TrEMBL record:
InterPro entries the record matches: 5peptide_repeat, Pentapeptide-BTB/POZ_domain
Name listed for the protein in its UniProt record: Pentapeptide repeat-containing protein
PANTHER family: BTB_POZ DOMAIN-CONTAINING PROTEIN KCTD9
């Protein structure tokens, strides 16, 4: 009978600790409802955030190392000058976040997250995994995405401009549109649908897959006539 009051008291104590303490290690923060939370210069090492509400929160100059966010809502959260090293976001809502102000060279993994309307500008995101996410209408500008992987991610309506896409793997992404004149492509893997749209944008015609095998035979018959 007393479990819920104790849980509530525990959550309230966690909130007080977040406000007064500077560093946390191997801590788990669960079922918190803290929309609009503002924290400055806190350090989190190997911490886990679970099923918590942090909409429009601010984490100014905070440091996260080997931390995981699972099932959290961080819609329109801000991370100005935050250091992110080995940070994973799993099954979380990250809508409308502008990641451009985080510290240089963040190490991030996104899996099963909602990244709709997010902005990534001027960052090195080499080897970043964006797996099975919804990233519709997101902006990817002036990024180094070398060896990044977008497996299973929906990129419908997203914009890529000024990006280094060396060995970037979009082969299992959905809705990808790339302008080769605005990005640096080298060994970039793209879906067939994207390759076709690129070819058509350059004035080429791509026969339907079912007709490809028969195309040489048709040309041979034409020559006989």
């Amino acid at each position: 009978m007393d479990t819920e009051p104790r849980d509530q008291a525990g959550r309230e104590e966690l909130v007080r600790r977040l406000e007064r303490e500077d560093g946390f290690e191997n801590e788990t923060f669960t079922d918190l409802e803290l929309p609009g939370l503002e924290l400055n210069q806190k350090e989190f090492y190997r911490c886990t955030f679970e099923r918590s509400q942090f909409q429009e929160s601010q984490w100014r100059q905070c440091k996260f190392e080997e931390c995981t966010w699972t099932g959290c809502d961080l819609t329109r959260a801000r991370f100005p000058q935050a250091a992110l090293r080995g940070v994973r976001f799993e099954g979380s809502k990250l809508m409308g976040i502008d990641w451009s102000s985080v510290s240089a060279n963040p190490e991030l993994t996104f899996e099963g997250c909602v990244l709709r309307y997010a902005s990534f500008v001027g960052l090195s995101l080499r080897k970043t995994d964006v797996l099975r996410c919804t990233a519709q209408e997101a902006n990817f500008f002036d990024l180094d995405l070398t060896d990044a992987d977008f497996e299973g991610t929906d990129l419908t309506g997203s914009n890529f401009r000024g990006c280094i896409l060396t060995r970037t793997d979009f082969s299992l992404a959905v809705g990808l549109v790339l302008d080769p004149s605005r990005n640096r492509l080298k060994d970039t893997q793209v879906p067939l649908s994207t390759a076709v749209s690129l070819a058509e944008s350059m004035g080429m015609r791509v026969p339907a897959l079912g007709d490809v095998a028969g195309a040489p035979a048709s040309r041979s018959r034409k020559k006989k006539r």
